[in-house]
C-alpha cells in the first residue's frame, strides 16, 4: 500500500474504508501485509455500524485474536483510519437531514424555489423541481450592491478607501469588498429586528441555520453580524455562505449553504456514534494529547479527493466522499508521470455507473454540480453518473431497445436476485455467460444463501425476446435479444463519456480506460472499443478501489477568496495577487501543521479563476510548473495570463485578444503528503515484464459464452492462479470473488503485479450485431444504436456551439438549437434545447436546400433568419451546412444550428421591440446568403448585413454588439463543422448505405409512435373531432379543429377561424405552428422517442393564408416566436384536454442604450434581454409548478448577483406571486414578481401576453391570474407647506413615486431610480375546488445521480 511518510511513523494498523450504498469495503495494512474485507452496509441483525464491524474484523485478523462485538476498540494499536461515507448523500436523497431555516436578503425568500427558472425535463407536463431543504425562511431587511457595472462602455471604476470587515465600514456607504469591487451599502440590518426574527424560529425548534445575503461573497459584514446574533441565541450549527464558498452567484451559494446546514449536524451525529466505538480518541487533536490511551488519526475523504481531519468534516464537502476515493485510487495506480497517458475512470456498480478523468498529473475539479437535485458550489472531483449500473432496467418500446435510466436498485434488484425483480443489465450478462454465478457471493433467496438465479434471468429475457418478435415480425433468439440490450447499454454509456471528454477539448482515443466496481469488467472492452481506446487497466483491488484510494490519498486544506482585478503581466496587480495567495497559503499551512504535518510534508497548488470580460465562463488556472514556464512562458512561473490564454484556446478553440482578462478568485490547495505510492507504475511494469502464453493447466473451467455472432467455448481463469507475465488471448473470462472480467475475441489480457492489462486488437474490427451483408430489414438493435448516434451528433454540435460562443445568450442562457437533416431537409435528430426551434428549423433547411440545389460545395455555409424562409423571429439566426458523399457530388445530410443573437439592430436595444409594425423595425432580415465559401468566412458581408443595412431604415440602428454577432456566427460554423465531421465518421464506420437506411427508418419509427398516439386519442374521445379556441390579448382568436382518422392514425390540424394578420408583432411564421405541434405530440406520448420529421408525417396542417399564423413577407413577427407560440400550444393542449393553461407567455424584458442610428453619432452602449418564468398549468394527476418556464421556452435567468455585477440595476424583489395560480382539485402554479430598479437612464421594453385573457382552468378548475407590468416612475413635484401655502424657493420640489401600468407591450425611457415590476401570470387549475386530490409525483430515476460537468451541462441544455 506504500510506506508511511506522514506525521505518524508506522506504529499500528492502517485502515481505509469506503461505506457504499450496498457494500462496505475495508482495506487494512500492517507490517507490509494487506487484508481486504467486504461486508454489507446494512445488517442490523449482526452489527449496528458496518465501518466499526470492518475495523473489528481487521484488528482481530492482525492481532491474531477475536475481539468480541461491542467491545470498544483499542486505538493505541491503530495508526490511522481513513473513511469515505454515504451518510451525507443518503440524507440528501432521502431528505433526512436537520430541520433548518434559510436567512436571506429581503425580497429573495423564494430564490431557491425559483432557482434558475428552467424545468428539468422539457417534455414533462407534470414538472418536477427538487424540493428545497429548508423548513422556513427569514428575510433580513438589509441591502448592498456593486457600485460599478461590467458592461459600462466607459469602464469607470469607483475607488473606496474603507475595506469591508473593518470598524470604519460600519459608518460609510462605500466600501471595498474582499473581491476588490466597490460595494454600496443601501441598508444595514437592524440587529434587534434580526434577533427577534431568529429567536422566533429558535422557539419553533430549529437549531441549524443557513445564512446567504446578496453579495455576501465580497461584503461579508452583514452575514457575520447575523452569525454572531445566532450564536448568542444558541443555534447549534450556523453556516455562513462567505465562509463556506465566497463565490459569486446567489442561488448556488444559497443552495450550498443550505446543504451544509442540513447535512453537517447529521454527519456530526454519525461521527459521535462512531467515536463511541473506540477506547481512546480519534483525530489530530486527540493524537496531540499525551495523557491516556494513545489516540489514532482519523480522516474522512472529501468530495475534492482530499482527506480532512474528523473534526473538520462538513456536510458540504461530504457529498462525493465515497466515489472520490475511487478516483484517487485509479489516478495514483494507473497514471505514469513519465508517459503522461491520461486515464478515463469507469466505475460500474450495481446501482450506478460513474465516469471521471485524470490527466496532466492533476485532479479535475468542478465548482458547481448537482447531486440528488441539489446544486452545490464547492470544489468537487468531476464525477458524472452516466447510467444506473448493472441494475439498469431493459425495455422494448416503440420498436426500440431501451436501457434505463430506471433502475431495479438493490431491492428488488435484477430478476436473478431472486426477489421477483425486472429484467436488467445484470440479467443479460448472466444469461450470456458473462457473469459467473460460482464467483458471485451466495447471498440471495429466502435464507440469503443461494447463488444468482440464471433461470429467472432467462425467463424475463425470453419475455422481452417474444415481445420483440411479436412487434417486429423478426425471429430473434433470447441470446440475440440479450446481446442487443448489452450493445444498446454500452452505446448509452459511451455517449456521455465521449461528451465529458470532448467537451473539454480531449480526444477519448488518446486515453486508457481504468475500470473498477463490480460490473466494470463485463463492459470495459465494449466501452473502450466504442471510444477508440486501445488499452484497459484493471487494478488487482479494483472491486475495493475506493477504499484503497483512501489509503493512498493526501490530507487537503482548501482556501479561496474572491477577486475582480484585470490581469496584467507585471506590476502592482501581480504583486497584490501574490500577497493574497501568500496569505491563503499561510492559513492553509497553519491548518495542516495543526493536523501534525511538518513544513517539509506540505505542498501547495496555486490557482487563479480567470475569464474574459463580458463572459461568465471562468477557468480555474493552475500556476505553471517550472518546467512548463520554461517551455511555454519564457521561464515566468507566475505567467497566469498566458496560461489562461493557452487553456482557453485548448478548451474553447478560440481566444479574445481584444478583451481584458478578469481574475474572479484566488485559490490555494494545501496538501499534507501522508503516504507515498511505492509500487512500480503500469508503464514500468509493461517495459520490464517477461510475457509468456498462459499455461492451459491454469484453466479453472470452460463456459459457453455469447459474443458477437454466437456462443463460443470460453476458458475461465481464476485471477489468483495466474502469474505475472501470463498473456491470455480472447475469448476468456478472468474472475475472483468480487469481479468478472470479460476478454472478448478481439482482445488479449496480460497479468502484471498490480493490474490486469487488456489490449484491444483494432485490426480485427468489430462486428455489427444482427446484421448480415445485403440484408435490408430493419434491425431494432441497430435502429436503437443509430437513434443514440444521431442524437449524440446533435448534442455534440450543441456542446461545440456552447463552448466556442461568446455571448451570454448562447453560452449561459443556452438560447440555441442544433440538428441534423436528411438530403431533402427533413429533421433526423434535434438536441432538444428549445422547443420553439423543434420543427421550425426543418422548414428553413428545406427552403435553403431548394434555393441552393446544385450550387453548394464542401465547406459552404448558408445564413438565413427571414420568417418567410423558415425563420422564427429575426434574432434567431440559422446557419446551414451540407455534408457530401466521398466523391463530393451528392449531398447526404445537412447540419444546422440556430442561435438567438442578443442584438441584430432595429428600433430598440435587444432587437425585441414591443411596438414593431414592420419586419425591418426588428433588425437585420436575411433571406438566403452564403456566409462561408469553401471554408472562408465572409466577415465583411456580416458587417454589411448586421451593422450597415439595418441602420439605413427609418428610426433603426444596426446591431449594438457586432463583435458578439461575429464571434457567435463563427461558433455556429464550428458547431456545423463538428456535425459534418461526426456524420462523416459515422458513414466511415457503417457505410453510406446503412447510415442512410437507418436515417429513413428512425423517422419511420417516430411516425409510428405518433400514429399510435393518435389512435389512442381517437378512442378516448370516441372518434369525435377535438376543438378549442383561445385569444391573444388584442382579441385575435386562435381556433383549432383536430380530426383524427383512427384507422391509419392520421390527423388534420385545421386552424380555420384564426384571426387575420395583425398590424403589430404577434404574427407567427408557419414554422412556429409546426414546432408547437411537434412539441405537444412529444409531451402527449410521454416517452422518449426520436424527435424528427417522422413526427409530422401523419399530420396535415391547414393554416389560413393571411392569418396571424401565416403572415405576409414584411409583417412584424418578433412576438410570434415568444408569445403566439405559447398560445398555439395552449390551444392544442386544450383541444386534447391534456392540462390547464400555463402562464402562456415568456415575459420578454429588454433594456439598454446606444446604437448607430442613421444621421446620428454612434453611441457605445449595451443591450440586455431576459425572459421571466410564471406558473405552469395543473393536470389530471399533478399540481401546477410555481416560478418555472413553460412549453415553448426554457431559458435560464441570470443569477441575481451576476445581474447586478454586469448591469446598472438593483433587483428589489424576485419572488413567487402567491395566489396567482388558479384554484382547483389540483392548483395551478404561481407566477413570479420581478422588481428591477435602474441606476442610470435606459430604454426599457416589455413584450408580454396574458395581461387581458386569463390562463384557462380545465374540468372545473379556476383560471390563473393575468400578469401585470408596472412602471414605478419617480417624478418631481412642487412641495406644499402644511398650511396650504407654498414653501420658500429652497425646497420647493419633492420626489414622488407614481405607479403606471405599461399594458402588455410597451417601451419607455426610464430614469435613474425608476423601476419596472413584472408580475407574471399563474397557471390554470384542474378539477373542482374541494375535490379530493389524486396528484402523484413520480420519482425521477436519475435523481440520485452524481452530476459533474457533463450532467450539469445536460441540465443546462435541458435534455428530454
TrEMBL record:
Entries under Pfam families matching the protein: Hydant_A_C, Hydant_A_N, Hydantoinase_A, Hydantoinase_B
InterPro entries found in the cross-reference section: ACX-like_C, Hydant_A_N, Hydantoinase_A, Hydantoinase_B, Oxoprolinase-like
Transmembrane segments: none
A GO MF label: 5-oxoprolinase (ATP-hydrolyzing) activity
Source species, domain of life: Eukaryota
Hydantoinase/oxoprolinase N-terminal domain sequence ranges: 14-234
GO BP, one annotated term: glutathione metabolic process
Hydantoinase B/oxoprolinase domain mapped to chain residues: 779-1327
Domain Acetophenone carboxylase-like C-terminal: 572-760
Protein family according to the UniProt entry: Belongs to the oxoprolinase family.
Protein's name according to its UniProt entry: 5-oxoprolinase
Protein's organism: Zalerion maritima
Amino acid at each position: 500500500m506504500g510506506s508511511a511518510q506522514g506525521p505518524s511513523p508506522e506504529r499500528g494498523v492502517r485502515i481505509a474504508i469506503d461505506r457504499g450504498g450496498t457494500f462496505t469495503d475495508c482495506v487494512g495494512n500492517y507490517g507490509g501485509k494487506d487484508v481486504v474485507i467486504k461486508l454489507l452496509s446494512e445488517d442490523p441483525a449482526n452489527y449496528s455500524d458496518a465501518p466499526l464491524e470492518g475495523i473489528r474484523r481487521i484488528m482481530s485478523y492482525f492481532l491474531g485474536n477475536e475481539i468480541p462485538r461491542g467491545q470498544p476498540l483499542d486505538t493505541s494499536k491503530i495508526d490511522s483510519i481513513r473513511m469515505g461515507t454515504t451518510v451525507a448523500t443518503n440524507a440528501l436523497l432521502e431528505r433526512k437531514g436537520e430541520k433548518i431555516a434559510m436567512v436571506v436578503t429581503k425580497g429573495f425568500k423564494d430564490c431557491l424555489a425559483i432557482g434558475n427558472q428552467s424545468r428539468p425535463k422539457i417534455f414533462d407536463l407534470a414538472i418536477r423541481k427538487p424540493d428545497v431543504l429548508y423548513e422556513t425562511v427569514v428575510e433580513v431587511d438589509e441591502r448592498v450592491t456593486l457600485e460599478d457595472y461590467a458592461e459600462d462602455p466607459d469602464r469607470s471604476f469607483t475607488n473606496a478607501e474603507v475595506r469591508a470587515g473593518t470598524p470604519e465600514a460600519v459608518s460609510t456607504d462605500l466600501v471595498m469588498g474582499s473581491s476588490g469591487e466597490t460595494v454600496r451599502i443601501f441598508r444595514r440590518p437592524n440587529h434587534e429586528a434580526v434577533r427577534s426574527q431568529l429567536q422566533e424560529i429558535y422557539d419553533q425548534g430549529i437549531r441549524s441555520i443557513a445564512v446567504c445575503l446578496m453579495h455576501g461573497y465580497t461584503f461579508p459584514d452583514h452575514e457575520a453580524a447575523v452569525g454572531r446574533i445566532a450564536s448568542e441565541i444558541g443555534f447549534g450549527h450556523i453556516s455562513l455562505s462567505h465562509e463556506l464558498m465566497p463565490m459569486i452567484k446567489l442561488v448556488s451559494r444559497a443552495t450550498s449553504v443550505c446543504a451544509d446546514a442540513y447535512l453537517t449536524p447529521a454527519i456530526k451525529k454519525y461521527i459521535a456514534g462512531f467515536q463511541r466505538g473506540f477506547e481512546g480518541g480519534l483525530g489530530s487533536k486527540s493524537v496531540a494529547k499525551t495523557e491516556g490511551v494513545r489516540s489514532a488519526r482519523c480522516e474522512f475523504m472529501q468530495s475534492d479527493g482530499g482527506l480532512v481531519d474528523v473534526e473538520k468534516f462538513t456536510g458540504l464537502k461530504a457529498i462525493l466522499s465515497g466515489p472520490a476515493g475511487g478516483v484517487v485510487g485509479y489516478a495514483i495506480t494507473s497514471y505514469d508521470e513519465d508517459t503522461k497517458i491520461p486515464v478515463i475512470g469507469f466505475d460500474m456498480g450495481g446501482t450506478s455507473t460513474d465516469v471521471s478523468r485524470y490527466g496532466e498529473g492533476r485532479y479535475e475539479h468542478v465548482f458547481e454540480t448537482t447531486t440528488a437535485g441539489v446544486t452545490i458550489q464547492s470544489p468537487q472531483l468531476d464525477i458524472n453518473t452516466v447510467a444506473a449500473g448493472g441494475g439498469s432496467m431493459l425495455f422494448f418500446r416503440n420498436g426500440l431497445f431501451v436501457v434505463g435510466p430506471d433502475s431495479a436498485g438493490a431491492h428488488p434488484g435484477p430478476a436473478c436476485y431472486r426477489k421477483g425483480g425486472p429484467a436488467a443489465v445484470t440479467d443479460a450478462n448472466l444469461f450470456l455467460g458473462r457473469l459467473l454465478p460460482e464467483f458471485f457471493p451466495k447471498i440471495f433467496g429466502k435464507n440469503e444463501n443461494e447463488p444468482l438465479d440464471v433461470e429467472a434471468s432467462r425467463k424475463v429475457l425470453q419475455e422481452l425476446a417474444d415481445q420483440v418478435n411479436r412487434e417486429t415480425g423478426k425471429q430473434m433468439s433470447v441470446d440475440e435479444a440479450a446481446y442487443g440490450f448489452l450493445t444498446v447499454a454500452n452505446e448509452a454509456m459511451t455517449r456521455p463519456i465521449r461528451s465529458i471528454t470532448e467537451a473539454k477539448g480531449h480526444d477519448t482515443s488518446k486515453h486508457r480506460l481504468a475500470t473498477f466496481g463490480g460490473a466494470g469488467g463485463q463492459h470495459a472492452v465494449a466501452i473502450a472499443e466504442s471510444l477508440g481506446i486501445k488499452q484497459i487497466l484493471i487494478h488487482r483491488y479494483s472491486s475495493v478501489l475506493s477504499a484503497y484510494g483512501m489509503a493512498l490519498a493526501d490530507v487537503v486544506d482548501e482556501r479561496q477568496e474572491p477577486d475582480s482585478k484585470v490581469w496584467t503581466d507585471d506590476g502592482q496587480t501581480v504583486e497584490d495577487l501574490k500577497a493574497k495567495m501568500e496569505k491563503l497559503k499561510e492559513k492553509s499551512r497553519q491548518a495542516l501543521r495543526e493536523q501534525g504535518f511538518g513544513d517539509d510534508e506540505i505542498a501547495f497548488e496555486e490557482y487563479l479563476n480567470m475569464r474574459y470580460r463580458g463572459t461568465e465562463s471562468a477557468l480555474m488556472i493552475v500556476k505553471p510548473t517550472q518546467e512548463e514556464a520554461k517551455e511555454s512562458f519564457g521561464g515566468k512561473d507566475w505567467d497566469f495570463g498566458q496560461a489562461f490564454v493557452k487553456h482557453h484556446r485548448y478548451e474553447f478553440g478560440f481566444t479574445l485578444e481584444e478583451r481584458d482578462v478578469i481574475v474572479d478568485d484566488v485559490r490555494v490547495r494545501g496538501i499534507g503528503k501522508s503516504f507515498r505510492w511505492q509500487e512500480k507504475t503500469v508503464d514500468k511494469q509493461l517495459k520490464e515484464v517477461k510475457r509468456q502464453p498462459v499455461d492451459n493447466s491454469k484453466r479453472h473451467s470452460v463456459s459457453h459464452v455469447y459474443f458477437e455472432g454466437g456462443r463460443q467455448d470460453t476458458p475461465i481463469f481464476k485471477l489468483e492462479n495466474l502469474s505475472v507475465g501470463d498473456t491470455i488471448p480472447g475469448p476468456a473470462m478472468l474472475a475472483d470473488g468480487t469481479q468478472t472480467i470479460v476478454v472478448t475475441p478481439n482482445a488479449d489480457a496480460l497479468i502484471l503485479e498490480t493490474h490486469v492489462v487488456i489490449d484491444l486488437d483494432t485490426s480485427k474490427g468489430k462486428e455489427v450485431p444482427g446484421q448480415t451483408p445485403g440484408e435490408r430489414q430493419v434491425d431494432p438493435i441497430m435502429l436503437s444504436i443509430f437513434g443514440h448516434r444521431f442524437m449524440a451528433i446533435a448534442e455534440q454540435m450543441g456542446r461545440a456551439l456552447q463552448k466556442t460562443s461568446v455571448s451570454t445568450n448562447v453560452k449561459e442562457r443556452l438560447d440555441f438549437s442544433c440538428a441534423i437533416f436528411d438530403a431533402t431537409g427533413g429533421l433526423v435528430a434535434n438536441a432538444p434545447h428549445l422547443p420553439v426551434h423543434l420543427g421550425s428549423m426543418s422548414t428553413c433547411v428545406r427552403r435553403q436546400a431548394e434555393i441552393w440545389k446544385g450550387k453548394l460545395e464542401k465547406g459552404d455555409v448558408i445564413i438565413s433568419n427571414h420568417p418567410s424562409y423558415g425563420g422564427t423571429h429575426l434574432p434567431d439566426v440559422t446557419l446551414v451546412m451540407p455534408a457530401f458523399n466521398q466523391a463530393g457530388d451528392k449531398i447526404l445530410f445537412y447540419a444546422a444550428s440556430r442561435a438567438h443573437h442578443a442584438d441584430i439592430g432595429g428600433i430598440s436595444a435587444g432587437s425585441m421591440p414591443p411596438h414593431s409594425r414592420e419586419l425591418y423595425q426588428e433588425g437585420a432580415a436575411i433571406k438566403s446568403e452564403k456566409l462561408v465559401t469553401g471554408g472562408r468566412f465572409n466577415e465583411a458581408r456580416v458587417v454589411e448585413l448586421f451593422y450597415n443595412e439595418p441602420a439605413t431604415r427609418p428610426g433603426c440602428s444596426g446591431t449594438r454588439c457586432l463583435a458578439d454577432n461575429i464571434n457567435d456566427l463563427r461558433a455556429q460554423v464550428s458547431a456545423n463543422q463538428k456535425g459534418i465531421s461526426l456524420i462523416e465518421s459515422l458513414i466511415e464506420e457503417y457505410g453510406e448505405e446503412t447510415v442512410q437506411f437507418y436515417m429513413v427508418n428512425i423517422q419511420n419509427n417516430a411516425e409510428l409512435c405518433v400514429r399510435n398516439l393518435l389512435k389512442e386519442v381517437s378512442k378516448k374521445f370516441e372518434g369525435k373531432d377535438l376543438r378549442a379556441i383561445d385569444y391573444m390579448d388584442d382579441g385575435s382568436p386562435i381556433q383549432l379543429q383536430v380530426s383524427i382518422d383512427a384507422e391509419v392514425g392520421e390527423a388534420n390540424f385545421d386552424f380555420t377561424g384564426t384571426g387575420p394578420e395583425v398590424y403589430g408583432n404577434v404574427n407567427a411564421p408557419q414554422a412556429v405552428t409546426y414546432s408547437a405541434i411537434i412539441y405537444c405530440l412529444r409531451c402527449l406520448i410521454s416517452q422518449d422517442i426520436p424527435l424528427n420529421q417522422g413526427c409530422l408525417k401523419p399530420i396535415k396542417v391547414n393554416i389560413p393564408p393571411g392569418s396571424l399564423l401565416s403572415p405576409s413577407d414584411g409583417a412584424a413577427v418578433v412576438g410570434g416566436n415568444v408569445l403566439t407560440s405559447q398560445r398555439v400550444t395552449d390551444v392544442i393542449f386544450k383541444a386534447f384536454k391534456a392540462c390547464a393553461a400555463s402562464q402562456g407567455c415568456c415575459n420578454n424584458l429588454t433594456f439598454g442604450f446606444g446604437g448607430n442610428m442613421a444621421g446620428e453619432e454612434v453611441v457605445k452602449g449595451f443591450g440586455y434581454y431576459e425572459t421571466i418564468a410564471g406558473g405552469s398549468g395543473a393536470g389530471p394527476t399533478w399540481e401546477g409548478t410555481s416560478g418555472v418556464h413553460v412549453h415553448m421556452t426554457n431559458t435560464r435567468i441570470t443569477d441575481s448577483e451576476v445581474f447586478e455585477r454586469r448591469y446598472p440595476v438593483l433587483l428589489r424583489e424576485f419572488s413567487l406571486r402567491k395566489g396567482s395560480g388558479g384554484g382547483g382539485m389540483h392548483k395551478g402554479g404561481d407566477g413570479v414578481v420581478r422588481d428591477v430598479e435602474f441606476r442610470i437612464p435606459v430604454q426599457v421594453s416589455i413584450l408580454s401576453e396574458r395581461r387581458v385573457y386569463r390562463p384557462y382552468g380545465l374540468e372545473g378548475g379556476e383560471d390563473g391570474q393575468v400578469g401585470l407590468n408596472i412602471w414605478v416612475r419617480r417624478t418631481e413635484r412642487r412641495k406644499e407647506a402644511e398650511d396650504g401655502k407654498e414653501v420658500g424657493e429652497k425646497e420647493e420640489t419633492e420626489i414622488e413615486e407614481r405607479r403606471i401600468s405599461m399594458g402588455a407591450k410597451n417601451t419607455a425611457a426610464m430614469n435613474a431610480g425608476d423601476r419596472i415590476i413584472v408580475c407574471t401570470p399563474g397557471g390554470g387549475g384542474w378539477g373542482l375546488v374541494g375535490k379530493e386530490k389524486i396528484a402523484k409525483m413520480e420519482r425521477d430515476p436519475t435523481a440520485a445521480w452524481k452530476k459533474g460537468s457533463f450532467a450539469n451541462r445536460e441540465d443546462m441544455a435541458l435534455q428530454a
